[in-house]
Please model this.
Amino acid sequence: MSKTSSLGIIIGNRDFFPDSLVERARLEIIEVFEKLDLHPVLLDPQDTKLGGVETYQEARKCADLFKKHREDIMGVLVLLPNFGDEKGVADTLKLANLDVPVLIQAYPDDLQKMNVVNRRDSWCGKISVCNNLYQYGIKYSLTTQHVVSPSDPTFQQDLLNFVSVCRVVKGLRNVRIGAIGARPGAFNTVRYSEKILQRHGVTVTTFDLSEILGRAEKLTEADAPVRQHLEKVQAYAPHGNAPNTAMIQIAKLDVVLQQYMEEYALDATAIQCWTSLQQNYGCNVCTSMSIMSENMLPSACEVDVTGTLSMYAMQLASNSPSALVDWNNNYADDPNKCVLFHCGNWAKSFLPDIEISNAPILGTSVGVENTYGALDGRTPAMPLTYGRISTDDPQGVIKAYLGEGELTDDPLQTFGNRAVAQIPDLQGLMQYVCRHGFEHHVVMNASKTAGILQEAFANYMGWEVYVHE
Model:
């Protein structure tokens, strides 16, 4: 059973309500978890009365169970088949001290069954439970509908979204990012605070680019790892006019990057992608970055550490790769469309026509022959979630903006990695980005996950979040 899909379950109970409600709720939620391929951690009926939690002693038993599964439990679901005991729920969470997201569910009453034998009063009980959690300082999430049955599709989508929230929170609190090389001197825009990130669980490990290039230069075409990585790169994307010498350089660099990722247990990287690489080594690192991002190890350009953190967060929310892009160009005179661009290192999930090529713009200063390894490809129409995490150093906080739109098939004749985005009130969004000092880099993901990210960032990470509607 996957550890990342385990949720603790607290079934609240009030003794003067019918026992059958608790019993049925336990069976129903187990069935729902099985359907959604989730793993429940909950009391057995012999542990407490029907496996519910009401008294302090029952809360202790449930908390002890959760502690035994601390490494597996990514979140807690509170079920209220009746009014429930708010102190029992709050005490369980306090005693377990898991510090994970919590989702509160409450059952609806049936208008035809409002007698003593069937009445639930969960509508009211949910308010009481939330009130107590608020008093205890325990963060929690709510279902879309105030009361809803676990068998309802609305609840099941809420539950899956909650699992995604849990995945984002757990990932962000433990992420390790490699900052490889110094940021390009002209890019003040990607400056950030390691100290602020560390306070939120984000660890940044720095590496001098010369260490990477030095180790790569010691490798030869005859080395087995180089041959293996050359085959991997060639299988990843067509290489068009890229000469064999450039492909070998790319493969050697790919070997070393993988070694560093494994040696330092890195989840993501931000790389000094120009111009030292081209001038001192002779190729672009874009292909390796694309391969990493496609394999859910996101990699961002220009040592944009908070950019790759944004990529990682969106990847956790959607279970799909992300890409770092520039807010780059207007799209003709359409106020709600723009061109997204990089030279480029996007995961090939975004590039059905992917090809290993060179970087014409960068080539004007370092020589096109030194820029092989950049990717060329156009992103077709697909869903879009976009956003950006940033450290606001003068304020000492982490802030973010998020939103959703669409990537379109509108004509676009240019080079590199490119896409056309359509975003409602794009001009208003650009006003917000500029007025609040955000970077020119933004992250895109082929999903609709802004709500998941907002809940994770704002509610559980405590970050300042703007959602563009």
In short: The mean pLDDT is 96.
